[in-house]
Amino acid sequence: MQSSVQLTASGKLKHFLTVSGLSKELLTEILDTADSLIEVGERNIKKVPLLRGKTVVNLFFEASTRTRSTFELAAKRLSADVLNININTSATSKGESLSDMLKNLEAMASDMFVVRHAQSGASHFIAESVTPGVAIVNAGDGWHAHPTQAMLDMLTIRQNKGQFEGLKVAIIGDILHSRVARSQIRALNTLGVNEVRVIAPNTLLPKHVESLGVSVFNDINAGLGDIDVIIMLRLQRERMQGALLPSEGEYYQLFGLTRERLKLAKPDAIVMHPGPINRGVEIESEVADGDQSVILDQVTNGIAVRMAVMSMAMSGQTEEQNILNEKRANESECIS
Known about the structure:
Elements: H1 2-6, H2 24-37, E1 55-60, H3 66-77, E2 81-85, H4 98-107, E3 112-117, H5 122-130, E4 135-141, H6 147-161, E5 168-172, H7 179-191, E6 195-199, E7 215-217, H8 220-223, E8 229-232, H9 248-255, H10 259-262, E9 270-272, H11 285-288, H12 295-335
Parallel strand pairs: 1-2, 1-3, 3-4, 5-6, 5-8, 6-7, 8-9
Helix pairs in contact: 2-6, 2-12, 3-12, 6-7, 6-12
């Protein structure tokens, strides 16, 4: 269902809601497009006209720094007009429904909504039921998905490792609450990595996590053996209910990535983190800032990937609108 909502009749992207259900070929097209756009950020004038005349609305119902900033930069580098809605001071605080707010924004000739929401499935609901004529890009929905984060991570891995086949990737930390981890796992498996490992205490693992296509480790030392890529995750205290951890200090002792633990992985292993980083809780500062860290590369790649996704989705929406206009014209001719 989700893949059909995301794609045009010809298989092009028109929304980007999740990596689940998308083909290896389409994920690779996103990466290739992003690769071609990286150099835009190196120009004196950091602009291309791919979304000139289009209006992109950022709707962030949850706090964000990196994601919101890189989406805004991406849209502006594509030459779009950008509107950032302050949800706390919007009409929804006066009782207006989300549906009414979105339909009003659509009536202002908006072309794309970038949506972050605490409810899983919110972006899918908007794309399918509320404003299907507007391109929707999911900037994170509940525990469900964060597809652009997954794709910028895939781009970072490909830049450093060249290919996905044969790689062993470890995702360490709060798997249970991480929409990032869910999207990463799906993307890694679709792109053909050899093995995806999740390393965490049992209290921070989803039930039946093996069904996602991963190997499970409760011991970080065992899980890091022969690993090519290490992805650390933030402890999401704001989503936790109950005492899932004894203390952050004990968590760091058992699952924090230190210089000594990094030596257990392959010598050329790269270290990643979607941010924000909690130093001394998930990762040692010397590792986060070390030679094997590609964390800042992830941020840079986030702009290119979001430019790619936005331009591809807008192209798909334009294709659908042209088909619809042609159909209406043919119907009009038949009536006349």
